Amino acid sequence: MSSEPRQRVVITGDGPHLVEGPVEIVLPDGSRTVSERPVTALCVCYRSTLYPICDTSHRRRRRPTRPETPEEPS
């Protein structure tokens, strides 16, 4: 077991992934970016002009609503 503190990633389902603490991000092309923020929002919709950092561009376009699941009988 490592003695280094663990990074926490929160997957919201409706928006960016949130990573706690300073983080280095490595993209598939090998480029790297560093964020020193206490919480960094990572773009998962590819609309951000600051990709891979979220700039809330996902808020400008409405997402389709999720289909409602029928309630189970009691």
Automatic annotation (TrEMBL):
Keywords: 2Fe-2S, Iron, Iron-sulfur, Metal-binding. The keyword Metal-binding applies. InterPro entries: FeS-contain_CDGSH-typ, MitoNEET_CISD. One of its GO terms (cellular component) is cytoplasm. The keyword Thylakoid does not apply. Residues 20-64 form the Iron-binding zinc finger CDGSH type domain. It comes from the Bacteria. SMART domains: ZnF_CDGSH. GO terms for molecular function: 2 iron, 2 sulfur cluster binding; metal ion binding. This is Zinc finger CDGSH-type domain protein. It comes from Kineococcus radiotolerans (strain ATCC BAA-149 / DSM 14245 / SRS30216).
